[in-house]
Automatic annotation (TrEMBL):
Biological source species: Kushneria marisflavi
Enzyme Commission number(s) of this protein: 4.4.1.5
Record pathway: Secondary metabolite metabolism; methylglyoxal degradation; (R)-lactate from methylglyoxal: step 1/2
UniProt name for this protein: lactoylglutathione lyase
Stretches assigned to coiled coil: none
């Protein structure tokens, strides 16, 4: 068995592509429109995953946008988060914060941070390799989550 993707529903394509692609660096790999079902599917891959060998498809994030407006609750307790490994957690969090994203759990320990997507999906960011030495403003920044 091979892990293929995780699907999350979104309320706004532009806001979601700005967050996942422009800010987090993911790439759109394909898109499917359904006139009958009145929805759009957009498949994203993390940039490092593009290097995965062709026969081992990179795990993807499937964004589902239903054309008819719907309110998305923040989901049942059984869904936790999407996790990504980043080269520089401080630089990633700074770029997100500079573009208006709240750093719910700052990378105080140089290892782990949490943010949320425009639709409230929890995103865990983990530092590649060893944790970076603690630095400001992250060391003294308060959590806004329950982490
Ligand atoms: C392409 C493949 O990866 C899919 O996941 S298609 C699954 C299908 N999706 C939809 O019908 C999208 C629109 C629908 N209104 C929705 O919001 O899901 C489907 O069966 N979805 C049901 C589900 O629970 O995933
Ligand atoms: Ni799917």
């Amino acid at each position: 068995m091979q892990y293929l993707h995780t699907m999350v529903r979104i309320t706004d394509i532009d806001q979601s592509l700005n967050f996942y692609c422009n800010l987090l660096g993911m790439k759109e790999v394909r898109r499917k429109e359904s006139e009958k079902g009145r929805f759009t599917l957009i498949f994203l891959a993390a940039n490092d995953d593009e290097a995965t060998s062709s026969e081992q498809q990179a795990p993807e994030l499937e964004l589902t946008w239903n054309w008819d407006p719907e309110e998305l609750t923040t989901g049942a307790r059984n869904f936790g988060h999407l996790a990504y490994r980043v080269d520089d957690i401080y630089a990633t969090c700074q770029h997100l914060m500079d573009n208006g994203v709240t750093i719910n759990r700052p990378p105080r320990d140089g290892h782990m941070a949490f943010v949320k997507s425009p639709d409230g999906i929890s995103i865990e960011l983990l530092q590649k390799g060893d944790p970076k030495p603690s630095q400001e403003p992250w060391a003294s920044m308060e959590n806004t989550g329950s982490w």
